[in-house]
Design a protein that fits this description.
By secondary structure, this protein is α+β, with helices and mostly antiparallel strands. The chain has 2 domains: 39 residues; 44 residues. A hairpin with a 2-residue loop joins strand 2 and strand 3. The longest helix has 30 residues. The radius of gyration is 25 Å and the shape is rod-shaped.
């Protein structure tokens, strides 16, 4: 990750945008020695968001499975449970 001062960012904006777009470089922006921003390429941000959404979905499914398991009768198969819900013979 590259680090730039806020003033450098202002002076080199074209170069910084190229680094983001072409090289996929993440850039840390500082002001008075403190990090004030991270510039992240859109593709990397989308991948991160998708990863978080996928992780959240799996977590929700595990929680749902746990809840179903708490109320599941041992002698009932999944097929029988579905038939019962559908009211099939």
């Amino acid at each position: 990750m590259k680090t730039l001062k806020k003033q450098e960012l202002k002076e080199r904006i074209e170069e910084v945008l190229r680094m983001l777009e072409e090289e996929g470089e993440t850039i840390e922006v500082t002001d008075d020695g403190e990090v004030i921003a991270h510039l992240v390429p859109t593709l990397r941000l989308q991948q991160y968001t998708q990863k978080k959404e996928t992780s959240r979905a799996w977590s929700d499914l595990r929680e749902l499975a746990h809840e179903i398991g708490k109320h599941w009768q041992n002698d009932v198969s999944a097929v029988d449970a579905v038939r019962d819900v559908r009211r099939e013979p």
